[in-house]
Amino acid sequence: MFNLIEKAVLGMAFLRLLSGTIEVMAAFLMLKLNDVGKAMIVNGSLAFVGPVILILTTTIGLLGLADKIAFAKLFWVLLGVGCILYGVKSN
Predict the structure, then answer these.
(1) Are 13 and 69 in contact (CB under 8 A)?
(2) CA angle at residue 89 from 82 to 42, to 5 degrees?
(3) pTM surpassing 0.85?
(4) d(C-alpha 6, C-alpha 68), whole Å
């Protein structure tokens, strides 16, 4: 089965599964801690995980596309990701 799936797609899917697992575990940790202050600390740490997973997943995708897409288009994709990260950055 895994021979039919591209390595880049498999890597991207694995990172998203890892991200989702971290999110679910953080939710269970918040429930276990049962404290708003501690839950905010856990939530704040998730603010680091999301962008890291986004950058890693995009990097794997771009490396998978590198031989199939023009350099100028890769630039626009990277610029778009940069705009997303800038837009969600807190002041």
Answers:
(1) no
(2) 125
(3) no
(4) 14
Q: What is the pLDDT of residues 9-40, one digit of tens each?
A: 999 999 999 999 999 999 999 999 999 999 99
Give the SS3 label for residue 35.
coil
Q: Which two tokens stand for residue 82?
A: 């940069």
Residue 73 structure tokens: 């288009």
CB-based contact 48:78 (threshold 8 Å):
no
Burial class (CB in 10 A: 0-12, 13-18, 19+), 8: middle
What is the sign, positive or negative, of the torsion defined by CA atoms of 70, 72, 74, 77?
negative
- Count Cα atoms within 13 angstroms, Cβ side, for 86: 6
